[in-house]
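If your schedule permits, I should be very grateful for your opinion on a structural question. I have a record of one protein: its chain in single-letter code and its fold written as discrete structure tokens. Would you kindly read the sequence against the tokens and tell me how you understand this chain to fold? Thank you for your consideration; the sequence and its tokens are set out here.


***
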Amino acid sequence: MTGFLDKFHELKIFTLDDATRIVKSKTYAMTILRGYIDESLVVKIRRNLYGVTNLATKHIEANRYEVASALTPTAYISYHSALEFYGMANQVFNTMYVASESRFNNFDFDGLSYIYAKSPISVGIETPIMSYGIRITSLERTIIDCIDRIDRCGGSEEMLQCFGMIMHVSEVKLMEVLSSYEKATLYKKTGFVLSKFKSRFKLSDAFFQICKERANVGSKMLTSYEDCTEYDREWNISYPDTFNSFDY
């Protein structure tokens, strides 16, 4: 029994199939897991996903980012949750946005809500050095994703606060993400939002020229109709007044 627990600790997070490979019997694996759970040596994260606990505290050893990355074979952290990982969030939420090619049902675990987000493109997904299997959107992909879905960044004010903590980005990587999305409205939104951070991010005039050329010509709203009380003539976009009061 103890030898099995050592093997589970090596995995940190594991499935029933992982346990079966270690124990050599699915029925026996289920029996062992029930015993470990009763003794608080293992916790059930969700259906068919388990994590070992710290032997002293009896709390799960894996952090929220490791749990999120283990939810499916293609899972990765995105939106505001990615900014939190990078230390560039103004607030820490009790929501984890997890993108995945395969859908999973939203669930709560250890005080957090894990929310499924459809994986729209495959570029800009990274595994940080010295991380335990964490998969996450790159900083550039995170920026574009948050502009695309400001609601998943905590709203426009939180997004501006987060972006204000970023000192440098890759213009090439930003454009790579935009090109992968191929959304004319997103070019418009990105051009408007990042024009506010042009000096901070050291973005070229050419970047914004491409955004203008590929943006749709019609007038658009950055967020909801109720929030968009201001209008930018250059980008032909309506936006919340929080953009006027922010110290860039």
